[in-house]
């Protein structure tokens, strides 16, 4: 892919690319919708990701092109017009990154060209947007020699998502894309940002990624709705409890105080966040002890909680995960990412991958009417120069 990109870059912009970078996508093993509740998450960066090339310009124009959105063509704007624009579509992500970097660093005083191409399926909950954010930040860091730490870039990516794109997401996606390590998952405490790399070795088992191939819709508004429901739950619990986040509570404590939450739906949202946080800590323990069966059971329990208490699955994700859970040789399966559509993961015996794909495809086509896709990819480093 890269060779073709260098040629395309020259033909688009009439200059050679000066710097190149790669930013991965991610899966989340477990710890879903816990990152904006001060809880733990357990993601891993994947080898599917976004490649980018860049060169400086002498004027103040920024030209962006994506091989994935050829019909949109070159999107251009100047350093003086860094505002969200619906028509700029995908390019709003890099634009947001430019805006906040530009506010932080005086030496970004001329424009640049960027060409990107990614192999993360779009809208599949594998974080193609955070991948573009971190990639753009990394390319600009290289072009302008910015003194920008990974953690700053991660936080900046989250600001783009929250303030520029209007999605009140947590920090998980940017964090794993910025800090990922090949062959490792990362356990992150989102309350403190302390983290630990854990070898992602599953013995005879591998993670299979299963894509619903359902395009996400309304995800952003539902996502923001869940987040405010958790905030509401927290503020009601705070009538009696001195806590800053749901992540500080154990399930036992929650059971004692849950009657403070008047609404049943809101109570279930909190129950998910708190139980999922406990499952994530247990899953970390299980993985470090090579207890893959226990790990698999926690994946199943996570899916059930996301389905019944958090209500972010939907028939497509349920069909994938619940069918996979029944396949011989599968230890566990669950949706991954924000939910509503996108992907699920399954922990499957290496010898049974084909069987998983056949059985899940059959059930999925029967129920949903079109086929799912499957990916088997390695675990990658975080954003890096090429
Ligand atoms: C999206 C968000 C993350 C996280 C997950 C759910 O991927 O960007 O911050 O909240 O959903 O776990």
UniProtKB/TrEMBL annotation:
One of its GO terms (molecular function) is galactokinase activity. ATP binds at residues 66, 123-129. It is an enzyme of class 2 (transferase). The keyword Nucleotide-binding applies. One of its GO terms (biological process) is galactose metabolic process. Keywords: ATP-binding, Carbohydrate metabolism, Cytoplasm, Galactose metabolism, Kinase, Magnesium, Metal-binding, Nucleotide-binding, Transferase. It holds the Pfam family GHMP_kinases_C. Pathway: Carbohydrate metabolism; galactose metabolism. The active site is at residue 173. Substrate binds at residues 32-35, 223. Mg(2+) binds at residues 129, 161. Its main location: cytoplasm. Residues 7-55 form the Galactokinase N-terminal domain. Its EC number is 2.7.1.6. It comes from the Bacteria. Residues 284-365 form the GHMP kinase C-terminal domain. The keyword Oxidoreductase does not apply. It is found in: Cytoplasm. Residues 92-180 form the GHMP kinase N-terminal domain. It catalyses: alpha-D-galactose + ATP = alpha-D-galactose 1-phosphate + ADP + H(+). The record marks 26 as: Transition state stabilizer. Catalyzes the transfer of the gamma-phosphate of ATP to D-galactose to form alpha-D-galactose-1-phosphate (Gal-1-P). Belongs to the GHMP kinase family. GalK subfamily. NCBIfam families: gal_kin, PRK05322.1. This is Galactokinase. The gene is galK.
């Amino acid at each position: 892919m890269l060779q073709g990109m260098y040629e395309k870059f020259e033909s688009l912009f009439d200059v050679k690319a000066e710097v190149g970078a790669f930013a991965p996508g991610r899966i989340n093993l477990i710890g879903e919708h816990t990152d904006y509740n001060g809880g733990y998450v357990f993601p891993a960066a994947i080898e599917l990701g976004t490649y980018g090339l860049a060169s400086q310009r002498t004027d103040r124009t920024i030209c962006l092109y994506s091989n994935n959105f050829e019909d949109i063509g070159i999107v251009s704007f100047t350093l003086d017009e860094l505002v969200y624009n619906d028509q700029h579509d995908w390019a709003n992500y890099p634009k947001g990154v430019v805006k906040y970097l530009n506010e932080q660093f005086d030496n970004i005083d001329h424009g640049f060209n960027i060409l990107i191409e990614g192999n993360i399926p779009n809208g599949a909950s594998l974080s193609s947007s955070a991948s573009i954010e971190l990639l753009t930040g990394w390319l600009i860091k290289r072009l302008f020699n910015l003194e920008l730490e990974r953690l700053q870039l991660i936080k900046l990516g989250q600001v783009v998502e929250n303030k520029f794109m209007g999605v009140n997401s947590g920090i998980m996606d940017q964090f794993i894309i910025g800090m990922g390590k090949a062959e490792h998952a990362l356990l992150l405490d989102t309350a403190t940002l302390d983290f630990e790399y854990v070898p992602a070795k599953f013995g005879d088992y591998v993670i299979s990624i299963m894509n619903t191939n359902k395009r996400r819709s309304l995800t952003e508004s539902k996502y923001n709705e869940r987040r405010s429901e958790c905030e509401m739950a927290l503020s009601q619990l705070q009538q009696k409890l001195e806590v800053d986040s749901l992540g500080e509570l154990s399930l036992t404590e929650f059971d004692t105080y849950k009657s403070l939450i008047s609404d049943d739906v809101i109570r279930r949202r909190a129950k998910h966040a708190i139980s999922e946080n406990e499952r994530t800590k247990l899953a970390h323990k299980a993985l470090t002890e090579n207890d893959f069966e226990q790990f698999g059971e926690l994946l199943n329990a996570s899916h059930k909680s996301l389905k019944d208490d958090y209500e972010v699955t939907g028939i497509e994700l349920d069909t994938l995960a619940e069918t996979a859970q029944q396949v011989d040789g599968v230890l566990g399966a669950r949706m991954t990412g924000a939910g509503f559509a996108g992907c699920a993961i399954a922990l499957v015996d290496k010898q049974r991958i084909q069987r998983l794909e056949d059985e899940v495809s059959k059930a999925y086509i029967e129920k949903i009417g079109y086929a799912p896709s499957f990916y088997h990819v390695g675990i990658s480093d975080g954003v890096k120069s090429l």
